[in-house]
TrEMBL record:
Keywords: Decarboxylase, Glycoprotein, Golgi apparatus, Lyase, Membrane, NAD, Signal-anchor, Transmembrane, Transmembrane helix. Belongs to the NAD(P)-dependent epimerase/dehydratase family. UDP-glucuronic acid decarboxylase subfamily. GO terms for cellular component: cytoplasm. This is UDP-glucuronate decarboxylase. Its main location: Golgi. Residues 11-307 form the NAD(P)-binding domain. Pathway: Nucleotide-sugar biosynthesis; UDP-alpha-D-xylose biosynthesis; UDP-alpha-D-xylose from UDP-alpha-D-glucuronate: step 1/1. The keyword Amino-acid biosynthesis does not apply. One of its GO terms (molecular function) is NAD+ binding. Its cofactor is NAD(+). It is found in: Golgi apparatus, Golgi stack membrane. It comes from the Bacteria.
Length: 320
């Protein structure tokens, strides 16, 4: 840990990804020196291009499943490296398991040696296809360990267990954020997640592909709310997991219709097979975040989607 007068330094693994790059921006704005570490497997140098040349920013291309070396002191590690969209982790099942397990172990080892605080990006997927609704942090989840999604869900569950073990046995200061579906600029339009897919399809006038009958629900959070939640969690003293998500729940079919309206599109809706183990419902109980972080989302879905629309329009224009 650096002395109190020195500049604070944060390592952000997965910092060239969607969420990681927004966190790089926020911690720089808060006066931190930011070291962004990423192997660019699902992230992109474009996401951090605007930061290259900033003296307080450094990019290190590295796969965090291998030993991590960082020069100098560190105050904080935000461990965000991991494929996150179902398409990505189904294409990279072993890498997903490795980054959640070996990568988390390496990042925790680094936190121990630097006496840095460690924050794990966990996920609502630890609840699997939940049998309680909404989900609060005391629910242990309903995950199929050998199902297709198990590579992601179990990696994150292991990562949480490893984080708590370092906390209990090595007295590392740790934080665990369970992130619910988040959207915003810097998402890839082909990452396969519902929102970028629907935006791309609607803006191109193509049919929106709703999986199953579309009655499954999700609760979508705007990226600025996630960043604020992570910031508060990293600055506070609460070490049990905290849900960060927007409780506004919607069925996927209604969501597809909402995107068609928002984009003023003539697109139709088609129905395709529901992927295996696709959770039927998902909605965060954010009582804990309200209580320990005084946090709740500042953007409702309509506002957040409006703020995101221009980004997707430009992305779609660029590829035509
Ligand atoms: P993303 O794919 O945009 O970012 C992940 C980043 O990690 C990428 O830049 C990728 O190149 C990097 N990475 C992957 N494996 C790596 C490795 N072995 N070594 C170094 N870098 C590696 O995804 P995202 O949506 O920004 O998600 C970031 C984190 O947040 C993930 O840990 C994810 O599980 C978690 N999360 C995201 C959401 C969401 O809705 N976006 C929800 C829950 C949890
Ligand atoms: N989904 C869909 N059409 C698509 C992509 C996704 O109907 O083109 C569904 C998916 O089956 C899931 C929901 O939308 O029920 C949210 O999917 P996403 O991949 O965005 O997030 P996750 O399933 O990880 O919550």
């Amino acid at each position: 840990m650096s002395n109190s007068t020195a500049r604070k330094r944060v390592l952000i693994t997965g910092g060239a990804g969607f969420l990681g790059s927004h966190l790089c921006d926020r911690y720089l704005a808060e006066g931190y020196e930011v070291i962004c570490m990423d192997n660019l497997s699902t992230g992109s140098a474009d996401n951090i291009a605007h930061l290259i040349g900033n003296d307080d920013f450094e990019f290190i291309k590295h796969d965090v499943t291998n030993f991590i070396h960082v020069n100098g002191d560190l105050d904080l590690i935000l461990h965000f490296a991991s494929p996150a969209s179902p398409i990505d982790y189904l294409e990279m099942p072993i890498q997903t398991l490795k980054v959640g397990s070996l990568g988390t172990h390496k990042a925790l080892g680094l936190a121990k040696s630097k006496e840095a605080r460690f924050l794990l990006a966990s996920t609502s997927e630890v609840y699997g296809d939940p049998l309680t609704h909404p989900q609060n942090e005391n629910y242990w989840g309903n995950v199929n360990p050998i199902g297709d999604r198990g590579v992601y869900d179990e990696a994150k569950r292991f990562a949480e267990a490893m984080t708590m073990a370092y906390h209990r046995y090595h007295n590392i200061e740790t934080r665990i954020v369970r992130i619910f579906n988040t959207y915003g600029s810097r998402m890839r339009i082909y990452d396969g997640r519902a929102l970028p897919t629907f935006m791309r399809q609607a803006l191109n006038g193509n049919p929106l592909t709703v999986y199953g009958d579309g009655t499954q629900t999700r609760s979508f959070m705007y990226v600025d709310d996630l960043v604020e939640g992570v910031w508060r969690l990293s600055q506070g003293n609460y070490s049990d997991p905290v849900n960060i998500g927007n409780p506004q729940e919607i069925t996927i079919l209604e969501f597809a219709k909402e995107i068609i309206n928002l984009t003023d599109s003539d697109s139709e809706i088609t129905f395709e097979e529901l992927p295996k183990d696709d959770p039927q419902v998902r909605q965060p109980d954010i009582s804990r975040a309200r209580k320990v972080l005084n946090w709740e989302p500042a953007f409702d879905r309509e506002e957040g989607l409006m703020k995101t629309l221009d980004y997707f329009k430009q992305k779609v224009l660029r590829e035509t």
